[in-house]
Design brief:
34% of the residues lie in helices and 19% in strands. It is of the alpha/beta class and 280 residues long. The longest helix is centred in the last third of the chain and has 16 residues, at 247-262.
Amino acid sequence: MSHPDRFLLAGVMGWPVMHSRSPKLHNFWLHKHGLVGTYLPLAIKADGLKAALRALPALGFSGCNLTIPHKVEAMAIVDRVDPVARRIGAMNCVVVAPDGSLSGFNNDGWGYIESLLEAQPDWRADAGPVVVVGAGGSTRAILVSLIDRGAREIRLVNRTQANAEALAREFGGPIAVLPWADRNAALDGAATLINTTNQGMVGQPALDIALDRLPRSALVSDIIYIPRETPLLVAARERGNRTVNGLGMLLHQARPAFHAWFGVMPEVTKELRAMIEATL
């Protein structure tokens, strides 16, 4: 498939940004689907974000992804913000409309749920209590996605309890905050455990949680993908729990963006996953 009138363009804006795997990911799909174009890393500092976003239509870009530190600030620059992104309080995708206006979306929560379903097709948010550890930006997207998927009980624990309580007040619904000291007891009867912190990432200490009270039938998920298996996932796997790392979230959140920009909904294949894993 080709667009003879223009060279297709998209990219990821951030600072720093050259570490991003998104260019390899999207360029893989462009080639696979016969689209003539490219996806670029766009090193944009905070003070240049507005000018960079407003330049996208004139430069022929179909849109861009946003990463740190732009996910919140961009919401005040674009012309429209999708309701889900508004609820999450951050956006990671900009789409340029035919009239040159900019719309903002957040695909992180959708990508996270798709990554669980890819690994465990029978997973359900309402199968039992979900324990979420953390209260950062990724936590927000995951909480919204869990609520929208019908989770009936979300046990939220975070080292700084006030941050977790702020999220519970904002999102309401099935979220109950438990003290950090009760994090191990929170695992009683849980169907899903999700780590949204950076604990276990390369260079960081392991997540300080004991799995003794977690049912072996529970799914254990970690949004970290470097390393591919965190100490949490190693411990869960060794005791018989099903595990999912964060790579699938990265891959799946890119799919709706690619579709919005280029009109093709790509798939996450073994070939793509192996290609990205080789860069980690």
